[in-house]
Write a structure and sequence with these properties.
- By secondary structure, the protein is an alpha/beta fold.
- Helix content is 30%, strand content 25%.
- The strands form four sheets. Strands 4, 5, 6, 7, 14, 15, 16, 17 and 18 form a nine-stranded mixed sheet that branches. The chain has a six-stranded mixed sheet with strand order 9-2-1-13-20-19, with helices on one face.
């Protein structure tokens, strides 16, 4: 069949791979000039089933409210006049119970673990380079109380297939010698030995090049403007460069998915949550991190990617704006200069802000739409790199009429 993938971020690229693998004639459309040029441009780089907690938790509303007068909160709330923002926030608030957080976390971690298996198979089959690094990820805690609480909380992950180890401060230094000079700042850490890291954008771009060699067509600088419908099918996808037709269409447009889905009668609960990223060169430095991790007190994540380090933080509930100011990165820089003062050339850092396509639950929206030939694969949020491979395989299986490898409770589009 002829398949059309809308979007060339990590979700669209992995979807194109899985559809091509199944023998479909695949075309990918994106408004950007190259793959992974929007949300996937500068993500955290962590492939982290061992950190697959739902953001909607009992603690989230208090953090968001504190952010109205404190600028150091990991979750930030800014008022908006957009009605869709308030509708989404109301649904997010409704997910912030202990019961819903546990359910959403369970669903997330199952998808993430499955996705890790699919990812390994993809890399084995294609040999695509992405500055990958195995050896686990480390989640650092500064107080004994926080470490003890995190260890207890991690049972929901270990019960669903993640290996989680608790480390004391000496164990932290052993796992990453770069942390040895500052080990006394921490009570310890949780260590997920099966977690990984890698450059999502580099993977996407190298995979796109590999797919071109397999006959996949890419049409960049092409904006999708709407659909032409005939009965219960989409007869054409309209763009600013003409129309495209296909037997199967998969919508992978991240934060812009709801805009087109509304045209088909769907109200997708996907809304942007802004994140901030720093990238700094590591070449020639004395003590860079050897594995990625998260400082859980500030929720600053970091990952060594080849000759550079990526640092990310903050979830800002503020709409579609992507602007940023120097003060937005102060906590991130201060944290990294404390952990790895000579781990990178922080004076040469570059700064970026992007929009994560979040659902209130934190799980993606997958499956068929009201139109018989349109499928959804969107809403992976802050774990697009981690979830994308599994979500793409699930999408290809659904298109083929096969039963997916994992249950999709809470993820299927409401039709």
């Amino acid at each position: 069949m002829k398949a059309l993938v809308l979007g060339a971020g990590i979700v669209g690229i992995t979807t194109a791979y899985e559809l091509n693998r199944d023998g479909h004639e695949v075309t990918v459309i994106d408004r950007e000039p190259e793959p992974a040029n929007f949300t996937s441009f500068s993500n955290a780089g962590l492939f982290a089933p061992g950190h697959a907690y739902a953001w909607s938790s009992p603690a989230a509303p208090k953090i968001l409210l504190r952010s109205l007068w404190r600028g150091d909160q990991a979750l930030r709330f800014k008022f908006s006049t957009d009605p869709r923002f308030w509708k989404w926030m109301w649904r997010f608030w409704g997910e912030c119970t202990a019961e819903r957080a546990a359910l959403n976390t369970t669903r997330k971690v199952k998808l993430c673990n499955y996705s890790l298996d699919v990812f390994h198979d993809t890399v084995t089959r294609t040999g695509v380079d992405y500055d990958g690094r195995t050896g686990g990820l480390i989640y650092l805690y500064r107080s004994e109380a926080a470490l003890k609480a995190a260890s207890a909380k991690s049972c929901i992950l270990s019960d669903n297939g993640c290996r989680i180890e608790t480390l004391d401060r000496d164990g932290v230094a052993a796992r990453d010698p770069a942390l040895a000079p500052v080990k006394d700042k921490f009570a310890g850490a949780l260590y997920a030995p099966d977690d990984e890291s890698g450059d999502c954008r580099k993977f996407s771009q190298n995979m796109a090049a590999w797919l071109k060699g397999q006959g996949v067509t890419f049409k960049y600088n092409t904006t999708i403007t709407g659909f032409e419908k005939q009965g219960d099918r989409i007869s054409a996808v309209m763009t600013d460069r003409g129309q495209e037709t296909a037997d199967v269409i998969v919508l992978c447009l991240g934060v812009y998915s709801p805009h087109l889905a509304r045209e088909l009668g769907h109200d997708l609960a996907v809304y942007p949550v802004k994140g901030y990223a720093i990238t700094a060169p590591m070449a020639g430095r004395n003590n860079p991190p050897t594995i990625g991790g998260v400082d859980e007190e500030t929720l600053v994540a970091y990952a060594p990617l080849g000759d550079r380090v990526r640092v990310t933080a903050t979830a800002e509930f503020s709409g579609y704006g992507r602007s940023h100011r120097p003060q937005d990165f102060e906590t991130m820089l201060a944290t990294m200069k404390t952990l790895f003062p000579d781990g990178a050339d922080w004076s040469k850092a570059s700064f970026w802000a992007g929009l994560r396509p979040m659902t209130p639950e934190g799980t993606p929206i997958l499956g068929p739409s009201r139109m018989k030939n349109l499928w959804f694969n969107t809403g992976q949020g802050h774990m697009g790199w981690t979830m994308s491979h599994g979500a793409a395989r699930i999408t290809a299986d659904l298109v083929a009429g096969k039963r997916p490898a994992i249950a999709l409770d809470g993820m299927l589009a409401v039709t």
